[in-house]
Amino acid sequence: LEGSEHSSSPSKKRKAQQKQVDNDELDTLGSAISKSASIIADTLLACEEKEEKRQRDLIHLEERRLRIEEANAEVNREGLNGIAGALAKLANSFHALTTHKKPAG
């Protein structure tokens, strides 16, 4: 009898209650850590996605810049070709004029 009374003593009940409180606190702490880890993972993922988008945007901008440079170079080439053609025509005109009008002698 005494042994069975001793097993349900207030001291053992307190220890059992404290153990339950400790387990509840650990569960709460574990849950909080899990939520925090999830938030951190989501934040890192969002950050990586933004970085990837930024890299894609930079690549698109660089490609656009190169296309503009190529277009400008082509315009310059066409302009120089036009000037060269005009100078050639002018030279031909001068040549024709000088050979057509020979000084009277």
Structure description:
- The model has no long low-confidence stretch (mean pLDDT 88).
- 92% of the residues lie in helices and 0% in strands.
- It has one domain.
- With 105 residues, the protein is mainly alpha-helical.
- The chain has helices at residues 2-7, 10-100.
- The longest helix is centred in the middle third of the chain and has 91 residues, at 10-100.
- Residues 1-10 have a biased composition (Polar residues).
- Residues 1-29 are annotated as: Disordered.
Overall average residue pLDDT: 88
Secondary-structure element series: HH
* Spatial gap, N to C terminus: 156 Å
Report the sheet with the most strands, covering strand number, pairing sense and barrel closure: none
Rg, rounded, reads: 45 Å
Region (Disordered): 1-29
Biased composition (Polar residues): 1-10
Give a brief outline of the structure:
With 105 residues, this protein is an all-alpha fold. The protein is 92% helix and 0% strand. The protein has one domain.
Keywords:
single chain; mainly alpha; 92% helix; 105 residues
Topology:
Layout: H1 2-7, H2 10-100
